[in-house]
Each structure stands twice: as C-alpha cells, then as structure tokens.
Amino acid sequence: MADLITVDDPDDPRLRDYTGLTDVELRRRREPAEGLFIAEGEKVIRRARQAGYEMRSMLLSAKWVDVMRDVIEDVPAPVYAVSPDLAERVTGYHVHRGALASMQRKPLPEAEQLLQGARRVVIMESVNDHTNIGAIFRSAAALGMDAVLLSPDCADPLYRRSVKVSMGAVFSVPYARLETWPRGLEAVRHTGFKILALTPDEKATSIDDAAPHRIERVALMLGAEGDGLSAQALMAADEWVRIPMAHGVDSLNVGAAAAVAFYAVTAGRPQG
C-alpha cells in the first residue's frame, strides 16, 4: 500500500517529477533522460497501470483521494496529497482533473521486432505537434492499426499532452523509433510491407482505388501538419495515395486524415 503524504511546500524535492509541466523544452529534455512520463487524469492513470507501467509517485488534490483509493491501496509508490493551489504552483497550470502520476518508461522495442507480428502499421515523419501525436495514436488504437513507427525527429508520444489527447491510447499501440531516416524505411520494406505515402498531391492514387485493405502488409506514412511528407520520404514510398476531397477543400488536418486513412487500411479486417 502506498504512503499518503500531505505536502504544503511547492519546493519540496519529492515533487520534482511534477515541476514545470508547462515548460515544454525542459520536459522534453528531462523526461526521456530520467525515464519518466506524466499521466494526467483518473482514466489515463488507470490505463497506464493496466498497460504495465510502473508508478513512481502520484500527486492528488484532496477530493481525488477517495476516487483513487483502490490505486493508492494497490501501489507501493508514495502518494502526495496537495491543495489545488499548490498543485498549480508546482506544475505551472491548473490541474483540472486533480490527479497526476509519474510513471516509469519502458525500453522501446526495435522496429524490426515490432514489425514481425504486424500487418497494418503507421509511420510518422517529423510530426512534432503533441496534440496531433495523441490524436493519431487514438485513431490508430480505435481503428485497429498494429504498430506505430516514428522518424528520429518525431515528438515524444509519452509527453503529457500527447498522452492526455490520446486518452491513454499511446499505451495500447506498440511503437518504436527508427534510428535513421529515410534509410530506416528499408527495414519496413524488407519485412514485406508495401509503403503508402499519404499526400494531397494530385498525382497520388485515390486511396479508394489503391484498396489498401486488400494488401497483405501495409505501412501508411504520414507527414507533419502543413509541410506534409518530405521529398525524401515520398521518394522512398512504394505508392502515393490521397483522400479524395470535395467542395474545394485541398487537405485535412493530419489527425483527421489519419483517421480516414486508417479506416481505409483496416476496413474489412477482423478486429482482435
């Protein structure tokens, strides 16, 4: 059972995992280096634990202690009870959901290992908006994608904003980071995947005509908001595909486009 510890000093060193959560650059450096990430909200904390992540500590406002009582009783990590004002002073923002947990990261698998049992994979190039990362993971989980591969410069899926937007779906879809780009795509192709590049370019094949749901092993590649896929990534793809647009709209937000494309990739596939 965890110790419930009341803290009234925002500079208490035991709260270090939670300091400056709105300082993106600080957290980008600290969290991977120290092997931690922050789960926010009751559902996300529970999903992180269900996915096998070890809890380092939990930070709760008083009214959430009873809600999280079963978790408190089940984990050995310390639980810090604080006022909403103190939580805001520590984290840098008003913690609406009243519950934060510092979780221990797991080692990432190698891309080749992840691909062995997969048939439907999403590859992200240079997606650095944490909201988009979270939205893409949520759609990937909901629509039955098997795995996610990230280019070396993609944002961290376990950054607090990504985890929150995904509602914990980042814990449901296994992911790996390619060490080189775009050369790392060769490992995907050698594993038997056809690489489809999602682009609004008029030279691309309609995703309906490409019929990706009939292809045995498909890797769908997405680029960053605005810029889209790089020329190098497009050259490395086996085929370009696009989502047909109407009413003069030229493209969708990458999160929305991902959801549409994932459905096209997985349609008719038995869900497990």
Automatic annotation (TrEMBL):
What biological-process GO terms show up in the record?
methylation
Q: In which domain of life is the source organism classified?
A: Bacteria
Q: Which PANTHER family match?
A: RRNA METHYLASE, RRNA METHYLTRANSFERASE 3
SUPFAM superfamilies the record matches: alpha/beta knot (SSF75217), L30e-like (SSF55315)
Sorted alphabetically, which keywords does the UniProt record give?
Answer: Methyltransferase, Transferase
For this protein, the record's InterPro entries field holds: Alpha/beta_knot_MTases, Ribosomal_eL30-like_sf, rRNA_Methyltransferase, SpoU_MeTrfase, tRNA_m1G_MTases_N
Q: What is this protein called?
A: RNA methyltransferase
Domain spans labelled tRNA/rRNA methyltransferase SpoU type? 121-263
Organism of provenance: Streptomyces lonegramiae
GO terms for MF: methyltransferase activity
